[in-house]
Amino acid sequence: KNEVEQSPQNLTAQEGEFITINCSYSVGISALHWLQQHPGGGIVSLFMLSSGKKKHGRLIATINIQEKHSSLHITASHPRDSAVYICAVNTGTASKLTFGTGTRLQVTL
Amino acid sequence: GAGVSQSPSNKVTEKGKDVELRCDPISGHTALYWYRQRLGQGLEFLIYFQGNSAPDKSGLPSDRFSAERTGESVSTLTIQRTQQEDSAVYLCASSLQGGGGYGYTFGSGTRLTVV
Predict the structure, then answer these.
(1) pLDDT of residue B114
(2) Do strands B10-13 and B110-114 pair parallel, antiparallel, or not at all (unpaired)?
């Protein structure tokens, strides 16, 4: 079993829909990260969380430390949001990231 | 620099040849990481540098893989006697410090194809 599990693996949505991507982890962490990977491979860091909730534009990330669960929400989705969204954690005090397998999001017109 | 720079962006090499991949992190970032992403798969950790030393090399898949970092800046990942299973995108990332809890900036990666 992977230490970091994401769901769904694939998601198709119509423009304007509210999207939720889930991440569960089974180990103690110091931080959780949401990353975005566009076709072509470039990775952008969206959020780093250790508690609570963060918002940036149409993106919202939440984390529940007790339940070992995080969600990434996209409001008013747009085709340019189409990408792979990756959840990653720092386990314990580790510097390296442990990654989930990613959620491939396709937003259509 | 303004971002993490990796070179080359693409590399095609013959099986058995050695390759060197370069990463230039953000100036002042003491922590540097190498990750690998095989086609259709998730990201795998290779090695972590804090300054010029590598406290975690646990992800290097074999002794054909080595890396160094000099001047608390540029890092080079070397793969000797390349094999087809080494084909992947090699990504470098840097952060202000190690120990978790700091944001990461990723380079655009080097796509390595071993033929």
Answers:
(1) 98
(2) parallel
Taking the C-alpha atoms of residue A33 and residue B88, their distance in angstroms, rounded to an integer, is: 23
d(CA A19, CA A38): 17
Q: Is the pLDDT of residue B1 over 60?
A: no
Smallest CA–CA distance from B5 into chain A, residue: A42
Enter the tokens of residue A25.
């982890």
Side-by-side strand order, sheet with B19-24: B5-7, B19-24, B75-79, B65-69
**Closest residue by Cα to residue A36 from A18, A51, A58, A15:** A58
Q: Which amino acid is at A27?
A: V
Please judge whether A95 and B111 are an interchain contact, meaning their C-beta atoms are less than 8 angstroms apart.
no
Query: What pLDDT score does B102 carry?
Result: 84
Whether the per-residue pLDDT at A61 is higher than 70: the answer is yes
Encoded tokens for B20: 């060197």
Would you say residue B99 has pLDDT above 90?
Answer: no
Tell me the average pLDDT of chain A: 94
- Is B50 a residue whose pLDDT tops 70? yes
Nearest-neighbour CA in chain B from A34: distance (Å): 10
Looking at B1-115, list the stretches that DSSP marks H as alpha helix, in order from N- to C-terminal side.
none
Q: Which residue has the tokens 């970092």?
A: B69
Chain B closest-CA separation from residue A23 CA (Å): 15
Residue among B91, B76, B102 at smallest CA distance from A94: B102
At A34 the three-state DSSP class reads strand
Q: Which 3 state secondary structure label does DSSP give A49?
A: strand
